Each structure stands twice: as structure tokens, then as C-alpha cells.
Amino acid sequence: MSIPSSLKQISVVRSIGSRLLGSRLLGSWLLGLSLSVAASASTGTDVNLNTKDVRAGGTPVGDLIRVPIERVAITENVFYVSGLANVYLVNTPEGAVVIDTGFAHQAPKQMALLKEVLKGPVKYIFLPQGQQDDVGGISLIRDEDTQIIMTRSSAEYMVHRKRASQFLLPRYAELYSWTKELMKKSQQQAKKKDPFPYKPITPDVMVEDHEGYKFELGGVKFEVLALPGAEGINSAGLWMPEEKILFAGGGSVGPEIPMWPNLGTVRSDRNRILEEYIDTLNTMIKLEPEILLPGQDEPITDKKEIMSNLTLLRDAATYVYDEIWAGLSQGKDVYELMRDIQLPEEYSSLSQQHGRVEWTVRETVNQAGAWFQYKYTSELYPYRPTVVYQDLVELAGGVDNVISMAQKKLKEGDPIKAIHLVEVALEAEPDNKKVNETHVQVLQVLLKRAAETHKTFSEIAWLQSQIGKAKAKL
User: Which residues form the Metallo-beta-lactamase domain (predicted)?
Assistant: First the structure.
């Protein structure tokens, strides 16, 4: 497969302006570079959402819902369509391979755009992770004899995700504010309670993660690789060894590159393991890809940039991993480690807009079995410290005294202690106006700080959600 010379200019564009998943100006710039960007295909089953005011708008993850659906030619035979999640197509002389099929509410447009450049039948659909953004358009693109390829960990993840759905959905809705509008409009449009049914899939080709899988179509070679990474232990990738193209879908590298991985999620997910993430980065570095095609964000076509980014991520993750175990060996508890372990100067350029180093520390310590800190006996018992908050309020002489102290801490520039004190007061008198007014004030300070520092999506979205709830009590 030959690579058009114009494709090399993508890397230049990346250094000039906003990334594709931010303002998305790259879409119009690519038109000027003569890359094949098609207009959005219209279909009666798409759901149009109001994305003007979304939680954590302006962050890479918050703005994913705003990503326009456009098709871009990567090579003469490789195409991708952007959206909440990228979908890919590889044409060969004997048919096509599709990688990811998008979210159900965007899949009609994405699959229509792929079909415009599809040559021959779809022989394989590769699902890198088995999440909602993988499976939404399967029925729109598959042919009668299409084979679905998944790793066993991805197939098992789908069973877990289905079981955990009632636990996870409210948590997602708290952060991704557009999900409620999506569900309401989709229910009305489809005239059914569950317009996006999520069901585990039994693939035609089940790949054992530790073995991988090689296949060939039309003289083009493909390799399925387990790449447990930034978005889950069930992530996998598809490697084209002769073209040196790596489809790093399934969140192997996160929604922006380079970016600190979201290994300790606020929304909740199965274990995301730092040590395995480091192994995955080493695997990718060893491949020396010349084109990197992620599940989100735009392609990277400069080998030097790809290798530099992967090496930066690997080295930063290794540093944090080593510091965690050094700290545990010194008897430090998880909160000490969360405060102490920060990225040194050489890695400080890494964005923490999706995951945070301190959350990774906490998740890794928990995975190490260190849930009991060998410090407080009360940790052995099924009660949080909140069980004595009302007693503490009484001891302090009432909520007014507690709130006065919270306001004092806020004026002193310590919103962390202030939010702890406010939560003590809320446990005693959740509807107290003064308590809720102070709650809003502290949350707004935390929000301002979050927006001025790491700009982490989950933190900002959570704070915005809680401010809305606290204001509703006033």
C-alpha cells in the first residue's frame, strides 16, 4: 500500500493548531491538503444532540461528543471516520477489514461513509475492546459471511459490562451530561425503552490474548495483538506488519496522545493495570510503527513522533510504578503516596486531562492488596468515618461552628480541608441553607482550581454536577 505524500503533512498540521478532538479545525485543514474528507452522510436514524453546554467542555474527553463525523483517507486503501470513537476500513483485492463500528447513535453516518469507499465484501470486523463504541454499527456493515474477531478478554469484558450496566449507567450519566438527552431522544425516535441494546457477542474468531492471531486477506497480512492499556485490560490492536500500520484501538493509548492513562477511573471500570500498560507500550515500541491509528484522536504518521510519544509514556509510567513500590516498601500509606508521587520535570508535559497520577497510585495500591493501611483499626469494619460525623458536629457545638471553620479554611486557601468540613456538616444537616451555600462556594473554588491546573475531565464534570445539585437545594 503506497502512502500519499500529502499524508505526511498531517504531522505538520498537528504542530500548528488544535488537535482533532478539540476544536476539530484539522478537518477543514485536511481538505486543503487534498485528503479525502467526505461530508457527513444523512440518515433518518441518527440522533442530533445539543452539545453547546456539556460537562467539562473544553477538555479532550468532554469535547469528544462534539467531534464531527468525517472520513479521511490514510492511504489509498485505509480510511477512518471520526466521531466519538474512530472507525476504520482496510480495502484489499479480496474484500475489506473493518476495525470498530462506533456508537449506535453515530454508526449510521459512520458506516455510510465507510461504504462509499468500500471495495468488495466485508470479510472481517475486528472489535478491539467490546465496548459500546466498538459494536454500535455491526449490523450496518457486516455481510452474510463476515467474521467477527475478538480477543477472549474482550468477549469476557462484554459479559462483565452487561452484568454491571445498572451500576455503571448512573455513574456515566453523572459525568457525561449528554447521555440523558441521547437516551430520551433515542427512545422517542426508536419507540422502544432500550434503543441501544448491549449484548455480549460470541465472535467467529476467538483470539487467545497470550497467543495472538495472524490472518491474510488479498495478500495483505494482519496480526491481532493483545494491548491491555490506558482504557482497560481487554484492549487489543491490529498490526499490518508490511505497511507498519498499527490500529491501537480499544484505548491502548488513551483518547489523546501523549496523555497520562486513565487507570484509576472515577466512573468505575474493571482493573486497569499499570504494569500491563507498561508492557503494552514496550510491545508497541518494539513494533516501530510508522502510522499509529488510535481509537480516538487523529492518526499520527510521523514515525519519530510516534516513537517519542510511546517512549515518553513508557518512561513516565515506569517512574510512577517504581515510586509506588518504593513508597510501599517504606511503609507509606496510599494517601501519602498520592500526595508524594508526582511526575518529574522530564515527564511533566504529559496531559492529565483524562487520568491523574494520584488516581493511578490509588488504583495500583488497591490492586496490590493494600486496601488495609495498617494504620486505622476502623478500616476493618463496614462503616465509613461518616458514621460519627453527626457526633462530631454535636461536639463542635453545631453546624454553624463547623461551617465557620470551613469558611476559614477556604479563606486561607485550603479548599481540601474546607470540603471535608462541609461534608461533615452535610451529614448532620443536609438541607441547611448555610451549609449548602458554603458547599457551593467550596465546590466553585475546587472547580476553578481544576480548570487552571490539570483540567481533568472527570474531576471537572463531577464538580459541575455537584454544584448543580447543591444549588438546587437553595
Answer: 84-296
Report the CATH superfamily, name and number, of domain 382-472: Alkyl sulfatase, dimerisation domain (1.25.40.880)
Tell me the C-alpha distance between 54 and 389, whole Å.
34
pTM (2 d.p.): 0.88
Between CA 325 and CA 322 the distance in angstroms is: 5
pLDDT of residue 278: 96
- pLDDT confidence tier of residue 14, bands split at 50, 70 and 90: very low
Distance of alpha carbon 281 from alpha carbon 269, whole angstroms: 21
- pLDDT value, residue 13: 33
pLDDT, residue 250, reads 66
How wide is the angle at C-alpha 236 spanned by C-alphas 231 and 237, nearest 5°?
Answer: 115
Report domain extents, the chain: 5-312, 382-472
pLDDT band at residue 443 under the 50/70/90 scheme: very high
Q: Which class in CATH covers the domain with range 5-312?
A: alpha beta
Mean model confidence pLDDT for the chain: 88
Residue 282 burial class via C-beta count within 10 angstroms: exposed 0-12, middle 13-18, buried 19 and up: middle
